[in-house]
């Protein structure tokens, strides 16, 4: 019933249509309860009574682990013939004692459960039983419980994304508590293997956030099962999985649901109407049971236990048996949900995204039933209005208010494989290390009601290459239910630091622009100019560096300089290195991605739209659309990015990129622009509505023709670089052929660069031979699209990453990033490549990846300014370091953030 109305809902009339439909629906289904309740008048048979009593008893039962769960010696998920594994000499972070317990010793995985503090007798017994005991020597490596992702869409929004695999959302109505993510779980999602390679062992699969109540979530372990079915991947699914007939004498299991607060006025009413409906049903059930349980059988004669498959899950929310995840960002929305929980008296397990929670901690504590856990990104903010005020300091602030903090992936928004990196970033911005590790283990496990099974060392174990909060910590082995998941354990993983990174002090960050300053206790100085990479290591143990008007005036011997009244900044052994160049994001052209009024907007698609005549054959120039003073620019600058190179946004012929200083106040500042016109950008993609061969034909026509904007002529003459956004190896092969054709035809060299280039490793040598540069914009690869599916996963799955494979082949390689929020993290992206390269990349090369190599790839011809960045406490590529100064030759000043 009512379904035809849902189906009729058109997106344009979404809210109104749906609210109306909901109203009709609620009225008629309440009537249904009344009429169906009376059918016969004869007294009930005894077995019928006992069924009613068992259903009534079940309405009072509280979910949790079954009795004696903790005494189990074998997991219900144990797979036959799994060898027991003894991990020796590990540094074991157990998650116990509020995340402070670290033990040194051995642990045993046997029959799908972990046994710590292994008694010798047990080992002897296993040996005597002739069990094939596998012994792994951890050599002191860190071991943690498997990583738990509280918010993932693995399997429902699969990679590579195909029209036939996106089952994240239903668009039929805003209130859909009866839908279930399990019904859409694709077992072929490429993300399972990748996520496990990051140590993720369990994820809560939420339906998407297009609806107010998107449906029921399910918890799954990511490992493949013998059954190969989605159901067999579930962890402790509720009995309602199979319908309403189950043994009600069992302890109920936790259920899970997702709710989202979207368009405010209507959303609030949608929620209230739905909960009101569920509350009525619960009332009818409770009245019925009160009569049955008091033996007044005549009062319920002829009636059945009042049930409704569509609303039973929401009734369970009201009965406190659902771990509700609420996707909610702003103070106004949090306030509305907190009011809702008090009006209808139901608990919330976790608020997700929750960008403004750090602004309203006291409000969160007013949630009915207790303060929810808060599930956050570390630095993925500002994509939409709701996320604009997100803060990297939120985890720390919330923790200081005693609120449980979770870091989550919202996979594929953040690739689940790097979930631990979210926790590590939260730690970088001040979250206590124990809480940071708990934020991806025990805290999400308890927010799911699964603390008895996961989040501690119960069943899933990860051995790490370095301290788990250090940059680029990588698993050397991952065990799920005691089963190893990496086929070449440790083979591709270089060891890293074994201690937790010391974090910087962000407590007071004064910002000052100065004429001169003296940096003392500088351990290393790197500068542009010379060497094979264009970046040189000037010296170690520098001591002091004096700067004036954005230039170095003395190195080492600065006593004369120090006599003047200059600000002195102690770098505490940190380094000064060239400011990084950021490429690949719409930095400066886009502030809030989903708010068109804050952005430059997209260029016309030449292949798909009627071009306005007034544009003529002009190509768009990014410089004309630059906007300064945005948050992403400011944070990139403070993150050590001193040059941004941005191309216009769009498909196929995008236009001409520009290089500028993210620290400038506006575009007319004389020095804001570094290079007005950098390169010409064209995208060739299988994801376009226009065929690839048509796109290539158009490009060929542009190259071989005579007409067009002067930039085209400059590309034809080999004076301007043509940067091609391309992912597929096959398209790259075609473009290399086109380059040959053009060069043979014109007798001129065509300067080509591939950007993106996820599959470039497949033809690394051909690319090197053709003298084509590659800008890797996903140094942490992910197969979002089909044309990226043959990616090189990198350690621990493969030895080489795309960056090292291309470097090895002799390609000029650079690193870019895609998301504007992430431009500030460029140094961590490069650091990740450096630290997982097992020494095949050195520091000057790493610096070149995001400076000189990048500028070369883009065909920048001028000598770039000597903009330098001072890091306190460590090196540019380490979590230990914080940017405290930008010595900007471009802007003729030094900016301090100390
Ligand atoms: C554990 O590993 C560390 C690091 O390799 C080593 O120094 C230590 O001797 C080992 N301890 C035992 C008991 O094997
Ligand atoms: C659902 O039914 C299947 C058999 O069809 C059974 O193996 C499974 O344990 C049941 N799941 C639950 C949660 O009751
Ligand atoms: C790292 O490099 C060293 C020296 O080349 C080599 O012996 C070792 O096997 C490499 N380790 C990994 C994990 O690739
Ligand atoms: C430089 O900083 C390090 C780290 O804070 C400190 O240990 C060292 O004593 C400092 N050296 C000087 C000369 O101040």
Share of residues in strands: 15-25%
* Average of per-residue pLDDT values: 91
Ligand types: 2-acetamido-2-deoxy-beta-D-glucopyranose
Molecular shape: globular
Kindly name the structural category.
alpha/beta
Largest sheet: 8 strands, mixed
Count of DSSP E strands? 34
Task: Give the second-level CATH assignment, the architecture of the largest domain.
Answer: Alpha-Beta Barrel
Helix content: 25-40%
> Alpha-carbon distance between the termini?
64 Å
The count of helical stretches stands at: 24
CATH superfamily membership of the largest domain, which one? Metal-dependent hydrolases
In the CATH scheme, the class of the largest domain would be Alpha Beta
Protein name: Amidohydrolase-related domain-containing protein
GO molecular function, one term: allantoinase activity
Transmembrane segments: 12-33
Organism: Suillus discolor
